[in-house]
Model the fold of this input.
Amino acid sequence: MLHLSKIATQLATPLDLALFLAALGAWLAFRGRARAGAALVAVAVLGLWMASAPAVAVPLIHDLESRFAEVAPADAPATGAIVVLGGGLHPYDPGRRLAPQMNAAGDRLLEAARLYRAGKAPLVIATGASVAGGAELPQADAAARLLVEVGVPREAILGEPRSRTTWEDARYVKELLAARGIRDVLLVTSALHMPRALATFERFGVRAIPVPTDFEADAAPAGLSGWLPDVTSLDMTTNVLKEYEGALVYALRARLQGVGAP
Done:
């Protein structure tokens, strides 16, 4: 079920949709329906261009990232735990690499360490299963190693190595919190991901205070430059669409399973 969900989400990305429409258009043209085929190819090219334009991508990502303000560690409230969601590390196989390597979302781990050093919670909960289910360490275990390197005591870190999705993050973290009598947490994840993550944790009854990080949005280039396509903008648009798709899927799942408020 998880793999089918991820495949469906991948097929709904701008690049895959554009390739599908272009291929369908070429097939129609080959079958003698040249006008219909040309129209589909034109839609594919135009859609991919718009999705790759900074003038489109930057406002889209800014809309999600601006829903929760950045919080300075010193200004964050004290809570029972800091929950940092997985996804900030590349797959880490101790047999091939000497240390965990952060990816573009690695700010999550640094922000969690800053909050801990600011005395905002006595416990850091790191989530994440193995990325590919292979020989690599679960994200939670690799994150613990990196957190120790940046000054968080190992005894203050609790791993949740089962969760493969944000839904499972919330579900399993809720169990850990309930077992320890913790009522509220600081939730650390990328700003783009925060709206969906916070809504999911709240559905499971976790009182979470958002601490967004890993902001991507910046001012879009002015004039013609804002309409020149680039790979970074395409990646932004893709990630925004995935967040909206994920939010919709989680809302439907919550209603079907009776989790939290509709």
